[in-house]
Structure formats: C-alpha cells, structure tokens
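Good morning C.,

I know you're traveling, so I'll keep this short. The sequence:
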Amino acid sequence: MRKFKNILMVCGLLLVFHTMAFAQNKGPRDNMRHKFAHAQFNEVKKALKLDEATANKFESIYNAYLEELAKQAQHEKQRFTKGAIDSLSNEQAEKIIKNRFKRAEKMIAVREKYYDAFKKVLSPKQILVVYQTETKVARKAVKEFHKRIEKRMERRDRKAAKNVN
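The tokens, ready to paste straight into the viewer:
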C-alpha cells in the first residue's frame, strides 16, 4: 500500500510537471515548455553522467516518454477549492476519484512500457536515478512556480497600495 501511495505521489508530481512541459499551446509558452523539457533531460543526463553516445540514444526515448506522459496528464484540468468540493455530490466525488485512479494507472502503464525501452540504453540502477531526478526536478518546478506566483501577488499588492495613496 505504501508503495502504491508513493507511486501515486510521483505520478501527481509528474502530472504537474508534464502538463507544464507539453501542453498543446503554440507560441512563447510552447518554446518555454520545450526549454523546460530540455532542462529536465540535461538534469537527468548530468545525474547519470552519460557519455554523448549514450545520451543521444537515450534522449529520443526519453522525449517520447515525456510526450506520452504529458498526453495522460493533459486530461487532469479539474482543480477544486474547499467550497467547490463541498458543492459536489458523493457520486460526483467518487467519479472524480475513480477517474484519477484510472489516469494514474495509465501513467504507470506508460512508465512500465518505457522501462523496457530505457533498459536497452540504461541499467536498472540508472533508471532509478532517472525517476528520482524527475521527482526532484518536478519539486523544483513546483517550488519555482509558487515563488513566481508569490512575487506576482506582492507586486500586485504594492501597486494597489500605491494607487490608494
């Protein structure tokens, strides 16, 4: 059970990251997502200390893996505040929970599928490092996202205070 909870937690973090990294929008945001995915690969490459030949083989597999995970993550658009959750019926809440379980299972299936592809280039120990690095990068991304929101709120508050005076 604990292992399942850990897998769900990692999937949740990946959900956040991969939605940011591979949403279907075009333009400056698309460029930013591409840079973010590239930065994530560079973190993995650095953590694994890959030579260029191995890195080149792994990069195409890894990018396909990220894209497939992103397709699963894109379906998770619903966020609920406490008030919104209170307004749901038990049947609606149960449906949402079951849909999230299904999505997590699909994400695990993608990870299992790509595990076999990763094994053609990396050792199982290296694959563990890939997963750990993904989690670390996702946490950093979420932390950075919250910092930026906080700064934006501070600027808005300062501007509002300035306009009051």
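Safe travels,
E.
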